[in-house]
Design brief:
single chain; alpha/beta; TIM Barrel; 8-stranded mixed barrel; 12 helices; binds guanosine-5'-monophosphate; binds manganese (II) ion; binds sodium ion; EAL domain-containing protein
Length: about 250
């Protein structure tokens, strides 16, 4: 069977998994949110990276089904944590640009939130700059609608998509995630000029900011010196399977 057919089956039969990577306050190490990241192990193909299978789903016309599965799985996990009495933890999920071109995404997502008892204010959607530049009117309108019902929006991989300052200021977003390409070199010959500029830009536009791919104390301290306090990266934690994520949340309870 072709990869796309196997993927479609995996979605239908719930054979995908979510891992959760902590987003921490670098000053205290406290976990502030979790990013859900989809994983797929196929018996024939082995571990397939989401980089590959998300594009297959996009090309084969079922990325919305994949995205809805991811949302539902994240919300169901949150419901389990709630039932265990753990403190509410915001969850970020990644949206494919193709999902934002579908006009019924807001209604679909609202239905899933309702069915799983998930508070919209605990959900953040990560979208890339390119998603917002491709079909700006439709994307902007839907993201506006999400934000009106309390869902937060972040621009993922920020800095690699060349959006202009003017475009950025018009976007309905709450925060930007500094792409790890601009964090990686800090302490390894990179002056951090781009990261500095992105933090300044976020401050200017009144947006929150989070750094991705923080792997060293040098990178952490540099970002903190800029006033960027939130981060994600291997220095704190890899993406965790649900059991490990549960243990982490239990420690904080
Ligand atoms: O987790 P990992 O580093 O393997 O992720 C690789 C890429 O796959 C990242 O760009 C990430 O944003 C993307 N990705 C992970 N999970 C999802 C998901 O649920 N939906 C979409 N659209 N992309 C995802
Ligand atoms: O594009 P997006 O930000 O959604 O990608 C998230 C992916 O980044 C996760 O799948 C995760 O595996 C990867 N990632 C998270 N932290 C680090 C890190 O510190 N270094 C590197 N190289 N990758 C990371
Ligand atoms: Mn992301
Ligand atoms: Na990213």
């Amino acid at each position: 069977l072709k990869l796309s057919a196997r993927l479609r089956k995996a979605i239908e039969s719930g054979k995908l998994h979510l891992h959760y990577q902590p987003q921490v306050d670098m000053r205290s190490g406290q976990v502030r949110a979790l990013e859900a990241l989809v994983r797929w192990y196929d018996e024939e193909y082995g571990d397939v990276s989401p980089v590959d299978f998300v594009s297959v789903a996009e090309a084969s016309g079922f990325v919305s089904a994949l995205g809805e599965w991811v949302l539902r799985a994240a919300c169901e996990q949150a419901a389990k944590w709630r039932a265990q009495g753990l403190a509410p933890m915001p969850i970020s999920i990644n949206l494919s640009p193709v999902q934002l071109q579908r006009t019924n995404i807001v209604t679909t997502f609202q239905r899933v939130l309702h069915e799983t008892g998930m508070a919209p204010t605990l959900l953040e959607l990560e979208v890339t700059e390119t998603a917002l530049m491709k079909n700006p009117e439709a994307a902007v309108r839907q993201l506006d609608e999400f934000r009106r019902c309390g869902v937060r929006v972040a621009i993922d991989d920020f800095g690699v998509g060349y959006s202009s300052l003017g475009q950025l200021s018009a976007l309905p977003v709450d925060r930007i995630k500094i792409d790890r390409a601009f964090v990686r070199g800090i302490g390894h010959g990179d002056t951090g000029a781009i990261a500095t500029a992105i933090v300044t830009l976020a401050n200017t536009l009144g947006l929150a900011v989070i750094a991705e791919g923080v792997e060293t104390i040098t990178q952490q301290d540099f970002l903190l010196s800029l006033g960027c306090v939130d981060a994600q990266g291997y220095l704190y934690s890899e993406p965790l399977d649900p059991d490990a994520a549960t243990r982490l949340l239990e420690q904080g309870a």
